[in-house]
Amino acid sequence: MQGETHFVNNTIYNCHTTCSLLNAGTWQTMLETLVTWLESNPYDVVTVLIVNSDFVEVGNYTAPIENSGIRKYLYEPDYIPQHRDQWPTLGHMILSGTRVVMFMDYNANQTTVPYILDEFTHMFETPFSPTNQSFPCTEQRPPHLDPKMAKDQYMYLANHNLNTAVDLGALTGGSSSESLLIPTYSQLNITNGAENQIGQLEAMRQNCTRKLRIAVNNTRCITTDKRQVSGIVPRTSSSSTTTMMAPLPPARCSKWQRGRTVSHTTGGAVDTVLSLQLRRYGVAMRLWRLRWCSSFLLRDSLSED
After folding, report:
1. What percent of the chain shows pLDDT beyond 70?
2. What is the rounded average pLDDT of the residues 248-269?
3. Beta-sheet strand order (sheet of 116-118)
4. Can you give the pTM of this predicted structure?
């Protein structure tokens, strides 16, 4: 789960760009909804990425965490930072009950709040709002990241959503040289396709695998933002899979059975079906459907397939 947050009147809200444009309610309410879902799905691991848009101190997030009841589920790493090969298995996290991993993009402080991890000391992101259909696996954030460190120590978040730059001057008839990025809807089936063809998810995964020289099953996060697609999880071996916005522990988590992710956009909402089978300790586990509003903010949870 990835969500943009803003600090208004001493309260954390889920808002996109500004709360006057889109306010999806308090962050604590979202966490309470997530806690209810976790209680009904005891074998699932969830990643939460906080977008701290107002760059407020991380301590402002602790009260909603405590009040919502999610604190007991939050994973605290053994190392600061915790490198890619130091993560526990998913099975260990499930059995220990600490099965929510929470990251923050800016102003995390793991010395004072150890259960909110600093995103950019654990993972890098490929270019945001990409316009290049080849989706090069280059490090955009954090800036100036050493390539060897990225390859050896970091997970990565792949921003895989194609955009087109529209000339504002051409739209308005004026002389503006600025452009506006809009989703390239005409290429949706290609952008969210699962095959190893240019512009598709599998091609990007293989490109990152070659560049970073990581294990083929070590892809961490994929962010999509598009309409109806089927089978968009990249093809991996039968022992592993990747999921949208779910950074997986390292290759030691070898019991994941291949599944799929389906996402589509309707208005401001993104419905994501995470249909995965986890077989470990003889137990079959399934991730159910979550519904996120714009920017993947959790709006409500559904129990149907």
Report:
1. 68
2. 29
3. 23-26, 11-15, 2-8, 46-52, 100-104, 116-118
4. 0.70
* Mean pLDDT value across the chain: 74
Residue 171 predicted with pLDDT over 60: yes
Unique residue bearing structure tokens 């291949």: 258
pLDDT digits (tens, 9 = 90+) for 121-150: 999 999 888 999 989 888 889 999 998 888
pLDDT in tens, 45-84: 999 999 999 999 999 999 999 999 999 999 999 999 999 8
Rounded Cα distance, 58 and 60, in Å? 5
What is the residue extent of each domain of the chain? 2-301
Counting every residue, how long is the chain?
305
User: What residues are paired with 155 via a beta bridge?
Assistant: 123
Is residue 198 within 8 A of residue 218, CB to CB? The reply is: no
| β-pairing verdict for 297-301 and 289-293 | antiparallel
The one-letter amino acid at 117? L
